[in-house]
Amino acid sequence: MHTPQDIRTAGVTAGQPQQSQEKRQSFSREIQVLRAIAVLFVVVYHLWPHTISGGFIGVDMFFVVSGYLITAGMIREFERSGKLNLANFYARRARRILPAATLTIVTTAVLTMLVVPNTWWQDTTRHAKASLVYVENFLLARDSVDYLAQDQAPSAFQHFWSLSVEEQFYILWPVLFVLVIALVSVLARLSQSKPAADPLRQRVIARRTICALLVAATIGSFVLSARMVSSADPAAYFVTHARAWELGVGALLAFTVHYTNAASRVVRYPRALLGAEVFVVSALVVGAFQYNDSTPFPGPAALLPTLCTAALIYIAVRLNAAPTALQGSLGRNRAKIVENRGVQWLGDVSYSLYLWHWPLIVLAPFMFREATPAQLPLLVLPIALAAAAASRKWIELPVQHGQIREWRPRRVLAATAALAAVALTVSMVPEAQGRTQLAQEASERESILANPPEELGSGALGKDSYEVYVTSDEVLIPAPQVVRQDVPEGQNNAECKSEQNEAFTPRCEFGNDNAKLTVALVGDSHIEQYLPAFQEIAKDNDIRILTYFHAACPFSLAVRASDAALGKPCLASNEDTLREVAADDSIDLVVTSNRTNVKWDRSHEPDPTDGFKKAWSTLSKSGKDVVVLGDNPRSLNGDETRDCVALNSKDPSACAKDRDESFVDDYQAEAAEESKHVTFVDTSDWFCTDDICPAVVGNVMVYRDSEHITATYAATLTKHVQESIPALDVGEK
């Protein structure tokens, strides 16, 4: 993102000496209005998401403005000197972007250790480091497609993804500019013709070449973005190659403005320009209120904010070339908005406000624990505005206009490296402290697991009551900091489970090939989580286990809505798996469990209930027994259970959830009632008393996220599973 200083130095008609200083300042004010609108969209969207459901388009507006301003400055220097000084360019970027951003990162890391549970510390360091080196967008992209990382608590540095995109653009775009200039110069020296040696001709060739490459890159990025969005790839929102086209539109606008003399040409229809401006602003506002989290984005949907922002910049350029257009009532009203002190102030602090508002939103529930959700935004907003004003006054302006401005580029870049080193060191403290705490308790956990008491985990749960701790050492297993990693065998290396968008389901084998009984576990992650229990049973019984696990893909012949959007890879995979399992005569028993409380595509047959019935019927007809484990209860949203336990380790009962609120509709239960030769197992008493569903039972954390149980707790369910499925008792190996 750009600071107001960028706007004032870039100017609307970079390289146009005939433009007056007054017009440049006027355009600067108009750019500030755009920035004020953009940051207003983003902040209100984050504080009150249901108010401006599409406020995220403010980021797209920032991208266009950034692409325009950066390129305008580059063009101006190129036209003035015939080259671009990379050292000066990067020194300017470092002065204007890094100090405020670095202060935000360091302060947030320290605040996290002071007010947030230790379950956040490792991720805090991970995201802080990524933000400091401006690769946060790729880290978020990786997490968005990582099944284990989905639905995790938001990072306080999440908003740095857009800054990362811009910084990566700032690094690559000037280098391309310089390489083209150098290449044209080399080719000119190698040529024997006099016209080729003409410096003016070289500039024209370089300019056209750069512009052609920019057009190609912008179109290519847009096509890639559209394809990623159409395939429902969540990484499309974050990765630079799917976002670069928006900055490219701003860059192309800079070429258009400069080389068509847009700021000095006569305006034939000034009133039409004013009308167009009103229309474009209206379109932006409509987009902000009509878009929402379900809008496929960026892709084609991002054309609205991108092109509207570019149009507003161009219209402002043209209107500044026709001051008479602003003399009517509409023009005077426009001037009042543009020159409004509050609007200009918001534009001035927009960069710092963007930096500070999101960490405060994320940390506020821990800083103000007594506040209600409705009160938190009212507390965050004034603090964010005050922090932005302070950052602007004491960080941004002194660095941009003080003695540092006179430093040579080498000195600026050296200071930047030193600042980054200090910030990286500070950001690593939370993770280091968290590891120290884990190490201190590691021996206690190992001792308990080496000789587990009979009541460990589910053994401490009864219909009327339960025990939180069954050992003298009140140690949680697993530790809340690593509970998300407590997963069944095979999930970490992704060998035994396919991803949602894959049209196949892998088969894995555990146990003796010549076992007395072969059990196939088939379904999504809600059957996979029981693998540890079946493995415990197999230790004492002559059992072979086959697994067919597919993430976010219930084992049904109905179509999940998310699968329909991807082209039905889950359905295709389920049909193949059904044929394979039905045809395998070595399989005696099929056990399945699935998350069914999801959106289904009702335009396709069968419906969810019949989809399960048809799949099970095929298996039953092939001579296999079918057992369905009812879906498990839900804990608190996202990582709230994990964080609650970390904050209340002495009394985790505070994190329990009412039984009536924990269970969701399960289509498997209805399908089983209507199916012959299918055994349905109600698993509710495996997790809950008659009244509540605890978060910790017998020292063991029950949930690793909002809907999956930990592998440790699953292993303690061995007795429940074996009693519910008598066929598993086949005797020793």
In short:
The protein is mostly helical and 733 residues long. The protein has helices spanning 4-10, 21-47, 57-81, 86-115, 121-132, 136-144, 160-190, 194-197, 199-230, 244-259, 270-290, 303-320, 329-339, 341-348, 350-367, 376-401, 409-427, 429-450, 525-528, 531-540, 561-565, 569-583, 608-621, 640-647, 659-662, 667-673, 711-715, 718-724; strands at residues 497-498, 507-510, 517-523, 543-550, 589-593, 625-629, 657-658, 678-681, 692-693, 696-697, 700-701.
Distance between the termini: 65 Å
How many alpha or pi helices?
A: 28
- Helix proportion of residues, in percent? 55-70%
Largest sheet: 7 strands, mixed
Q: pLDDT under 50 segments (min length 5)?
A: 2-25
Total strand segments:
11
Radius of gyration: 30 Å
Kindly estimate the percentage of residues that lie in beta strands according to DSSP: 5-15%
Number of domains: 2
Shape: elongated
The residue-averaged pLDDT reads 90
- Which class best fits the helix and strand makeup? mainly alpha
